[in-house]
Amino acid sequence: MLDLDAFKYTSNSHRSTRSTSQIRLNRNSTPKSSSPYAKSPRKSPRNYAAPQVYAHLPQSVPDIIAPNLHLLIIGLNPGVATAKAGHVFSGPNNHFWPLLYESGITPVQLHPSEDRRLLDYGCGVTNIIDRPTTEASELSKTELVEAVPRLFQKIKLYQPKSICVLGKSIWDAIEKHESGRYPGKDFRYGWQRDIDRVGVFVIMSTSGRVACYKKQDKLNLFLEMAAWLNKERQKEQGPI
């Protein structure tokens, strides 16, 4: 059994190597043509909000990041509660911290104020957009696409083994930047193509405001991500 309490990540940990030509839509299975996760009806989203609308709030939250992590989690942008707290995923209705614990990514449920403890388990967090908003809809698609190069620079600098993208809108922006078009209707949550030998796993947003997906749908994807992550951890621990 994997002992997460015994696992302590260091930036000199062994990193697996992969061919630059390796394209992975799912680590262990053939991709399907459509997502099995059905959306529920949702309320009308807010309109775009210019940066000055939230200028009274802190304009960024510190990254939780180190070189050569197993997993770098990519959030969209800070919510209002997160911006005020200065710790990632501080919204009281956000499922992020419970999902990490319930999936086995962390051995205990961390409080947002303990966010830097994620580094002990080989995980980190950053956002594609720094500025805060109440809802994701208050960001523009153009703004997201224009933020992709800076995100790629960060990934290249810190070289995580894989990234976990929280929210399809982030992956949409990456695909638009890379190919000039957004993903089609055949998009499926889970493993996508690699980016410069970095694995990419996409999960719907953990925000409680994104109520169109059930928490169990999110947990199922976190469990799949955790299965890969724990295999990487076991490689470092050796025989248990």
Automatic annotation (TrEMBL):
Q: What Pfam families does this protein's entry cite? A: UDG
Q: Name one GO molecular function term.
A: uracil DNA N-glycosylase activity
Q: Which residues form the Uracil-DNA glycosylase-like domain?
A: 63-224
Per the record, the coiled-coil ranges are none
Asked if Protease is a keyword of the record, the answer is no
Annotated stretches, region: Disordered: 9-46
| Compositional bias ranges of the Polar residues kind | 22-37
**UniProt biased composition (Low complexity):** 10-21
Q: What are the record keywords, sorted?
A: DNA damage, DNA repair, Hydrolase
**Keyword Hydrolase belongs to the record:** yes
Q: Which InterPro entries match?
A: MUG/TDG, Uracil-DNA_glycosylase-like, Uracil-DNA_glycosylase-like_sf
- Which GO terms fall under biological process for this protein? base-excision repair, AP site formation
Q: Which PANTHER family match?
A: G/T AND G/U MISMATCH-SPECIFIC DNA GLYCOSYLASE, G_T MISMATCH-SPECIFIC THYMINE DNA GLYCOSYLASE
Which protein is depicted?
A: G/U mismatch-specific uracil DNA glycosylase
- According to its UniProt entry, this protein's organism is Neolecta irregularis (strain DAH-3)
